[in-house]
Amino acid sequence: MRNVLKIKVVFCLSLLMLAFVGKANADVDASQRLHDLLKNMQSFQADFIQNVLNTNGVLQQSTQGEMAVKRPGLFYWQTFAPFEQTLVADGEQLWSYDPDLEQVTVQAVGQRLSDTPALLFSGEIDGLTDSYAISAVQLKDESWQFRLLPKQPDSLFEELRLTFAFDTLTQMHILDSLGNRSSLEFRNVSVNGAPDDALFQFTPPAGVDVIAQ
Questions:
Q1: Overall domain count for the chain
Q2: Which residues, including other chains, have CB under 8 Å from residue 129's CB and lie 6 or more apart?
Q3: Of 15, 128, 157, 177, which has the maximum CB count within 10 A?
Q4: Peptide bond just before 72 cis, omega within 30 deg
Q5: Cβ–Cβ < 8 Å for 76, 85
Q6: Cα distance between residue 122 and residue 161, in whole Å
Q7: CA torsion angle for 183, 176, 120, 43 (degrees, to 10)?
């Protein structure tokens, strides 16, 4: 279960970095295309289905939930029963609430991002290729997939893939450092909408343990 929770946190941090996507243009290279897409998108909100597979390809967990990202650095993630969990980044701290454990962990966003590139959600995306090797393939008409390979040896993930059709991100896949694979399928997507600011604020429920990391 600890591995599954770690995958969720890695996935959420990746979403913080990569949820600002849009339509690809075939006449520019992959890194420039991704740079332009990220620069133009300010928010992303969707429902999702998440599947986590272990190194043998066996499904460990399947969950449904909702999420929202807003530049710069605001994030909300909620999964529903039977695997309830809430993660909120308010720009300064990342809160992780597990109702089953009656526990909240909190850590500084900057501290957590010391081993993950912050370029994509901080707005400092001009140095994108300094942190990632980026490639893109066209799957079919108006459907593209980006592949990002971190250049940092201590990255929390080995590979990240984004699949989108037209101007809508539809799937996200991540291979973590332990060989586990996780995927998100997005539905009811809203790009550059107006997510409720209350989503990005978190107050620990009364009676739960709060653990600072």
A1: 1
A2: 31
A3: 15
A4: yes
A5: no
A6: 20
A7: 30
| Pairwise CA distance, residues 41 & 86, whole Å | 24
- What strand order describes the sheet that includes 168-176? 132-140, 143-150, 157-165, 168-176, 181-191, 43-53, 59-70, 74-79, 85-90, 93-98, 103-108, 209-212
Task: Look up the CATH number of the domain holding residue 46.
Answer: 2.50.20.10
Closest CA to 166 of 185, 138, 192: 138
With vertex at residue 79, the alpha carbon angle to CA 61 and CA 145, rounded to the nearest 5 degrees, is: 70
Q: Residue 31 is part of which domain span?
A: 2-212
Q: How far apart are CA 65 and CA 158, in angstroms?
A: 25
One digit per residue, the tens of pLDDT, for the chain of length 213 reads 444 444 555 555 555 554 443 333 433 488 887 777 667 778 889 999 999 998 888 998 899 999 998 887 788 999 998 889 999 988 888 899 999 999 999 988 765 454 444 445 544 566 677 778 889 888 877 788 889 898 888 777 888 888 877 767 888 888 988 888 989 999 999 988 999 999 999 999 999 999 997
